[in-house]
Predict the structure.
Amino acid sequence: MKKLFIPIAVFSTLALSAAGCGGEGNPAAPSTAVSQPDAAATSDVRAEVVLTGLVRGLNWRARTFTLVGRADGSGSHLIRMNDRTVFTTGDRPVRPRTLENGASVEVHGVDAGAEVLAAKIEILRRRNGR
């Protein structure tokens, strides 16, 4: 009989302590509230930017170049182009391959963190002054 009494006593003790867990007002109860992330911290806000400088390291295969804003190379930005990037000279569209290293450009795009995705690249002056 003693063997049956011990398991029953242990079972009834566990059942009583489990019933007390999670009750209202019980500070030891696990939280079931779902935490909502801060909207400002998780929003994918991308700032529109307008940058002016010289084209360096133009890579048509990767569709990127470095825009250098100062002669010493500081203030540089990685610019990424895609199929929707528009190229212009003044107010008229030009072929993308008109862009060349050394050209002075104005880039309208979206700051995507490590790079700027170009929506429009206006060629202000080509390397040879045209």
Remarks:
- The CA atoms of residues 124 and 130 lie 9 Å apart.
- DSSP finds two helices and seven strands in the chain.
- Residues 48-125 form a domain with the OB fold (Dihydrolipoamide Acetyltransferase, E2P) fold (CATH 2.40.50.320).
